[in-house]
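RECORD TYPE: inverse folding
INPUT: structure tokens
STRUCTURE:
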């Protein structure tokens, strides 16, 4: 039996425009779950100074990893907050409570890896649209929205 491989790689040049761009956050969906056949998702998450971030939450069906590229990102591991700097890494398994934010006066950047690869970009794009339009979700709508995206607030 002979294997020759296949031409199936995906190249993304550095100058590809970000898929999500706002005043506080820019996100580049480097590899979506759709692209990787659901194996993983990889995003570059760039935060403006004092951008804040999500409150403590967890996901039931996927793990999340954070790798700081630049600046200082406050990472919450479910027990304590740490000031993570370039090269620092946090792995959060399924059901692991976590959060992140930029509380400094400098920009910060990190990679976020989701495994397996849900369509996590849909969550972020919907959140951006809700913010952009000023739409206010009812408590019931918020609960449904978060559950649909496997996001459970603590």
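DESIGNED SEQUENCE:
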């Amino acid at each position: 039996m002979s294997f020759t491989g296949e031409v199936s790689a995906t190249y993304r040049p550095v100058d590809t425009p970000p898929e999500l761009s706002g005043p506080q956050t820019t996100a580049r969906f480097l590899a979506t779950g759709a692209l990787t056949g659901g194996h993983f998702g990889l995003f570059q998450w760039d935060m403006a100074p004092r951008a804040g971030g999500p409150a403590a939450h967890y996901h039931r069906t996927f793990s999340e990893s954070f790798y700081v590229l630049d600046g200082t990102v406050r990472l919450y591991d479910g027990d304590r907050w740490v000031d993570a700097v370039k090269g620092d890494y946090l792995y959060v398994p399924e059901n692991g409570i976590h959060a992140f934010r930029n509380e400094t006066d400098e920009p910060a950047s990190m990679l976020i890896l989701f495994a397996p690869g849900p369509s996590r970009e849909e969550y972020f794009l919907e959140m951006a649209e809700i913010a952009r339009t000023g739409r206010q979700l009812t408590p019931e709508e918020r609960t449904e929205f978060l559950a649909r995206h496997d996001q459970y607030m603590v």
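NOTES: Residues 64 and 114 are 5 Å apart (CA to CA).
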